[in-house]
Amino acid sequence: MAEPYLVIDNVRKQFPRRGEPPLTVIDGLNVAVEHGSLLSILGPSGCGKSTLLNMINGLDDVTSGRIVINGHTVGVRSRSAVRIGVVFQEPRLLPWRTVRDNVRLPLDELDVPREEADRRVQRYLDLVGLGDFGDYYPLRLSGGMQQRVALARGLAIEPDLLLADEPFSALDEITARKLRQEFTDIWRATGRTVLFVTHNIREAVFLSTRMLVVTARPCTTHMDITIDVPYPRVPEDDRLFEIEKQVTRDFIRMEEAAGADQGAAV
Amino acid sequence: MSTGTTGTGEVTAGDVAPVVQVAGKADLVTPERRSWRGVWLRALSLLSLVVVWFVASLFLSPNVLPGPVTVVATMIDNLGEPETYVDLGTTVYRVVAGMLIAVAAGLVIGLIMGLSKFGEEFLDSWVLVAFTVPSVVYGILAILWFGLNDVAAVVAIGVTATPAVAINMWQGVKAIDLSLIRMGRAFHFSRASILRKLVVPQVIPFLLAALRYALGLAWKIATVVELIGLSSGVGYQLGYWFGLFNMTQVLAWTLMFTIVLLLIEFVILKPTEYWLTRWRPSMQN
To answer: CA-to-CA distance for B162 and B213, rounded, in angstroms?
Structure first.
């Protein structure tokens, strides 16, 4: 890959506050992602990861720096032509629409022709193992199934870039584990670029080709690790476990340092 | 989308399907059961009321409590008279006109209160006061100001039902699930789509509840206004027969109008509500 697909170039994000200096959420974040990689961003809760996803998705502007997708600098006014799919922490399905209609909703917004849309909805429901559940209403499905529907919705627009915001963190561990396995299978089969935000170290190590560890408030790059373990991976792989141990150690050291800093400031 | 992508998609489905375990029916949340049992139970419950009425009427003078058979017979007699339909129609017209005012005004007030903090603080005490004032007062004031005519009845009904609609819409707007709106934004839905596909459907159950409640209020105040000051409608008939101490006719008219309202409820409101909220698993199971 000559040109990285997604470049986050020294991005800073501040929110103005009345009567106080602006709140700096992200301060100098750098990363360049190749097409087709699965990058996870690992950081403590509330460290501006969702803000970062919003900026990549063209819902918010950077204060300074640049976000470049496929050679195009993005912002609220210059949204990327690249198609972006989203999966959230909660399913966020419309309970009054069937599973099929939910997956279809973003397709209608893109004016995908009816037949093509029908085909795609079925294909991606099949892909997440819910091919027979198109006519069900979401509230009849279990939490894990609902999250799969959300994943199908994110994939059905055939995004060039999929943004996943802690999609498995609200699920029980058994279901989450199963979905992680499926997620990497689907990712490998579709060849999309994925940005996966999480605060779960094991999850990040297991899933990604590359891992960006970020600090809390303001969010800056702390570590950038390439995880060179071939897929399909098994969660019990010793190599993954070694990386997890190392990252965990470092992560805790970083947290403690941040705590000490705050203590000194008080 | 380019053919390349479609190609990958094809490969995808073929490659991955076996890996992903297909979910089974067992994973489903317990389904809702809608059966005829409810219909039977309702019929039984109504029947028991008729039985109690019948037994009680055996021990009381017909001037105090005529039996169900007499009352139903009188009602059927009345249904043969063209004037009956004029009176029924007049009251239904007043109720519907008053409801339209209430829904329009209540929607606007409720939306303002739900969407703006200023609107809420400015209006909430008014709405609560208007909700608390006895509806007879509105009836009396409307007759004094507008005279003995339809306008008085319609205004009284409209003013009585408006706060109920407003309160429901206010709560409805506050109950909107914002995470769904954020989902719409993330997928770059247009403003119109966000409103039509994400906001309106969430408010509809509240609007239906408001309608039902307003209907209950509206017909009560309609009959009261007709009884106090008008010379047509169901309320007027009730007052007329009450003046003659004709209990049979009073009950016959009450029964007839109740049936009309139940028809509105079961033929229009309930099916609409069931259809609009068919996605919701029932709580009672």
So the answer is: 11
| Token pair for A248 | 């965990």
The pTM of this model reads 0.72
Apex A173 CA angle, A169 and A174, nearest 5: 135
Whether A92 contacts chain B with CB within 8 A: yes
User: Residue A45 burial by CB count (10 A; 0-12/13-18/19+): exposed, middle or buried?
Assistant: exposed
ipTM given for this complex: 0.84
State how beta strands A6-17 and A64-69 pair: antiparallel
Contact A86 B13 (CB under 8 A): no
Q: How far is B6 from chain A (nearest CA, A)?
A: 9
Q: Are A209 and A33 in contact (CB under 8 A)?
A: no
Pull the structure tokens for residue A254: 């970083």
Percent of chain A with pLDDT over 90: 12
Minimal C-alpha gap between B25 and chain A (Å) = 9
Binned at pLDDT 50, 70 and 90, residue B76 comes out as: very high
Helices (H), B80-199: 82-115, 117-132, 135-146, 150-174, 178-186, 191-193
Q: For residues A73 and A96, what is the distance between their CA atoms, to the nearest angstrom? A: 37
Q: Pull the structure tokens for residue A64.
A: 């300074």
Question: B19, B20, B199, B207: which to substitute to probe chain A, counting the most A Cβ within 10 Å?
Answer: B20
Most confident of A71-85, A219-233, B77-91: B77-91
Give dist(CA B196, CA B190) in Å, integer: 10
Task: Note whether A92 contacts B179, CB cutoff 8 Å.
Answer: yes
Q: Closest chain A residue to B278 measured between Cα atoms?
A: A96
User: If pLDDT is split at 50, 70 and 90, which confidence band does B281 have?
Assistant: low
